[in-house]
Amino acid sequence: MLYLIWFKIHQPESITQRHLMQIWQREAEAALPAVKQGKIKGLWKVSGKREVVAILDADSHEEIDQILENLPIMREMGYGVEIEIYPLHPYENFYELIKKLVA
Predict the structure, then answer these.
(1) Tens of pLDDT along 48-87?
(2) Which of 86, 44, 43 is nearest to 64 (CA)?
């Protein structure tokens, strides 16, 4: 199952810009191998914002929770990370549904 996951990072006043970038570096070092392995289908940084968008391939909702809770950025500053998750399905499947609904 594919999921669009939107991360919005809110820097707490208690950490410096350098510290935030160090956390983000560890996050990237954990995420990029998952891209190469195909678990993460796409990964983008939103320009001008502290936001990242990912397309993740997961077998279950439980796997999503497991993956998210083990991310360095969540372990180190989970309170400062807002996550939005949207389950996705192929547009072709939606088209087939539309044809049934119209018939």
Answers:
(1) 999 999 999 999 999 999 999 999 999 998 889 999 999 9
(2) 86
The helix (run of H) or strand (run of E) holding residue 86 is strand 81-88
The correct answer on CATH 3.30.70.1060 for the domain covering 2-102 is yes
Q: Hey, where are the domains in the chain?
A: 2-102
Q: Give residue 48's region: left, alpha or beta (phi > 0; psi -120 to 50).
A: left
Instruction: Please state, in angstroms and rounded to a whole number, the distance separating the CA atoms of residues 49 and 52.
Output: 9
Burial of 85 (0-12, 13-18, 19+ CB in 10 A): middle
Whole-prediction pTM: 0.87
Closest CA to 50 of 87, 17, 14, 86: 17
Which segments of the chain does DSSP mark as H helices, in order? 17-37, 61-69, 72-77, 91-102
